[in-house]
Amino acid sequence: MPNITRQNAIDKAHAFFDDGYACSQSVLLAFANEFNLDERTAKLISSTFGGGMGRLRQKCGAVTGGFMVLGLKYGNAEPKEMETKLHAYKMVRELNKQVEDIYGTSNCFELLKKHATEAEVEERKHHKIICRKMIGDAVGLVYDMINS
Asked: N or C: which end of the chain has fewer CB within 10 A?
């Protein structure tokens, strides 16, 4: 790793998002090939995390997609690998902190409220206003974390 540059990863995520994939899918898909993750499987795994977890407007999908990538890089495959598990959790908290340092929150509802009007959300304009930016920033942050 890395087989792609930081900007290529961001561009790839934006292309997936522009094609209609959810924030979570776009972030995970940007890195799927780097981890030999089948693209269809990546799409399915991350499909329900968009809209702040199934449109619950909870944790931002770009961030949860980033958490998935961190799991691919740092996650544990055995239940008793506590050191590995705790390190992965630490990385998740670090990504969340970095996002919150930039945006003040990693909550989908709060991000939308802060950056788009209700009418813009209703008309799905928030995708261009905040979601696309969140995806680019999340991919860039994750790229740095997995390549440092």
From this structure: C
